[in-house]
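Narrative summary of target 7.
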Amino acid sequence: MFILVCRNSIEIGILSLPLLSSTLCGQSNAKRIPDPRFVELSPDDKARLEQQRAVVAAAAKRYGTVTLARTKADLPVLQRLIDDRVFSKSQTYELQSLGVAFGDVLSSELPLRWVMVTDEFGTDPTLRFKKTSLQVNALTMISKRIERDEAVDLSEFLRITREQLARIAPNMR
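Modeled conformation, tokenized:
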């Protein structure tokens, strides 16, 4: 597990939380960065995610997978795509497409749903925990780690995310 602080959020393992105070980064006089703003997916946003799911579904056909279920049942084929390095670390779009497919698994297992978030880094799809500012950035969860040559174990990511949400919000369901 790791903790990353100082980018207007705290990333604990997998989750991102809004930074409570800029003094945590030794920047007591720093300009306050606005909290993230969440909006529902537009038809274009939904279409973009569907296109990314299609990239993963097409790659999964090599293993005999006809369609992705968007549930935990997809974990073995998604993990195999990663383990077999079907997408190289320079294929960011494809790796982020894996993040979308994994995000679907997370949203089927946990009280998370796809929304768009706008923050100091731009506007991107994210998984939002209920109506809180807690978010899981599934889009880049896999790509960042592969680009840094780090191990990616999706079952472990699911377990850690579940545990972190349970610790932060014990009555999450």
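The two ends are 24 Å apart (CA to CA).
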